[in-house]
């Protein structure tokens, strides 16, 4: 676990053993199952070590050092997790809404059999998956939240056979007051606007919703008078 701004290093020392027999072997890094792009400044490779000069919250995840040798299937020779704690809120959610968090433990579940996964909130376990492997529970949805859901969440993957444990993500969640009716209507209009694909469509949908509400209100008033 690292604090935002810290230096982090991941040394792929087993790469030397492979190159002894396959001098042309190439080292590659992945993050959460995808090729990891280096910028050469903040993140760089020093010989066989992946170096973060300054870690950010979005750097959290599972990193694999893999070797491409002789046209064979890539060999994983290093497994690392990076969880970055930041003082800033990363997820904002209104009371009554849902939010989801990604564990980043999927690759660990694919590499190691019988891994277990848990979510912690402020160091207290809030979700355990039992026999469900991390690759099948990578995203957790927290529904209809209230103030009690605010806090710092961390995901931990444990492999009992090797007694190895990885913290794969840390996320700070802030819970905001519930949305008003107008905000809810506008939010739905924006969602529909994205689905339809145009600002004009979104505005039209919003006007239709408002007109419908006015008609319903007027009819209710007439029914009460009669």
What tags apply to this protein structure?
226 residues, Immunoglobulin-like, 5-stranded mixed sheet, 4-stranded antiparallel sheet
Model description:
This protein has 226 residues and is α+β, with helices and mostly antiparallel strands. The model has no long low-confidence stretch (mean pLDDT 86). The chain folds into 3 domains: 2-85, Immunoglobulin-like, CATH 2.60.40.10; 91-176, Immunoglobulin-like; 181-225. The N and C termini lie far apart (68 Å). Helix 3 (181-196) crosses helix 4. A 5-stranded mixed sheet has the order 10-16-15-12-13, with no helix packed on it. It has helices spanning 15-21, 106-111, 181-196, 199-225; strands spanning 2-3, 8-11, 26-31, 34-35, 43-46, 49-52, 61-68, 75-82, 84-85, 91-94, 99-102, 116-121, 124-128, 139-142, 151-159, 164-176.
């Amino acid at each position: 676990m690292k604090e935002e701004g810290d230096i982090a290093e991941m040394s792929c020392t087993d790469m030397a053993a492979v190159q002894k027999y396959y001098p042309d072997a190439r080292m590659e890094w992945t993050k959460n199952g995808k090729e990891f792009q280096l910028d050469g400044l903040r993140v760089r490779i020093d010989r066989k070590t992946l170096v973060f000069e300054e870690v950010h919250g979005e750097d959290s995840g599972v990193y694999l050092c893999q070797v491409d040798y002789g046209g064979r299937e890539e060999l994983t020779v290093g497994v690392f997790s990076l969880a970055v704690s930041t003082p800033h809120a990363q997820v904002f959610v209104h009371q009554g809404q849902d939010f989801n968090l990604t564990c980043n433990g999927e690759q660990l579940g694919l590499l190691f059999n019988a891994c277990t996964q848990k979510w912690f909130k402020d160091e207290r376990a809030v979700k355990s998956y039992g026999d469900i492997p991390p690759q099948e529970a990578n995203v957790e949805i927290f529904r209809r939240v209230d103030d009690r859901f605010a806090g710092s969440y961390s995901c931990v993957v444990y492999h009992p056979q090797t007694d190895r444990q990885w913290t794969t993500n840390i996320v700070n969640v802030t819970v905001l007051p519930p949305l008003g009716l107008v905000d809810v209507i506008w939010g739905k209009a924006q969602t529909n606007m994205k689905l339809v694909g145009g600002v004009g469509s979104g505005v039209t949908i919003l006007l239709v919703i408002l007109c419908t509400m006015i008609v319903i209100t007027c009819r209710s008033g007439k029914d009460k008078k009669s």
